[in-house]
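Progress against Task 2.4 (sequence-to-structure conversion) is shown through the following example record, which the project officer requested during the mid-term review.
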Amino acid sequence: MHSFTFDDNSLLPALYGREDEHLLLLEKNTDTKINYRGNHLEIFGESNNCINVGLILKNLYARLKEGSEISLGDVEGELKMTIGKTENVSGEPVYITTSKRKIVARSLNQKLYLNLMKENSLVFAIGPAGTGKTYLAVAAAVQSLLNGEVNRIILSRPAVEAGERLGFLPGDLKDKVDPYLRPLYDALYDMLPAEIVFRKLESGEIEVAPLAFMRGRTLANAYIIVDEAQNTTPMQMKMLLTRIGENAKMVVTGDLSQIDLSDNQLSGLKQATEILKKIDDIAFVKFNSKDVVRNQLVIKMVEAYENSEKKLKLMKEIK
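Structure tokens generated for the chain above:
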């Protein structure tokens, strides 16, 4: 049995969750039983599990005291990180601070990703939707801009699948490309107040542009994020990577299971993972279903697709 007391009762409803859902999730995943009376908790179960649950609750409580909000996803993230500690991975939290929020790594691969973005000039993040590839990259870019480490942020992605044919869409160029760049805008507004985003977009400190706008440019003193890179051609990818100038960082994200190029067209992202993996200052992170931080249903669906793809690959090898 492990017991302790929290000193601020006003934070406990948020800590315990709606109808104690945070505590129930911890119990289910650690084979423990949590009893509480006011601010005093008692945790029953195997000793290590009780200690881990106590550590998770204390970490979440500390975040609440700092003014952060916590959700069921944050509890799941703490669970993943605690399991990581039993696998000889450092227990130190890894996070990014922006104007609006503090973003904490919710899985071992997210933790690795945040560290690699600090240590390398070019990082490839590959994996399914919902793993935080783009969101964490935008957070890292915003932090670098606010800290004065770079002068601008450039966010880019292929404007449409398998190319950038925009003529059929109504409106001017901005109207044509904005719908495809909306996820990048959404991430920005989650990190910075709307008026600051608008001001930095107007001044050019933040630029959101389709892939074609990168051609012929040398991007120095910038943090460059290329999203949905599985839909770049090898020529486009080479063009992008050779844009990196002095004091620049680039993060390239994509999901190789969602390539929208024609069947006979090689993905530039796939090619890059094969030919650049041994170059210093370039790092690769591969996410999987365990890193998904969205609804539990999303995790189950991603796992189902992964299992199906493994079976198809095995069948092809047998043939």
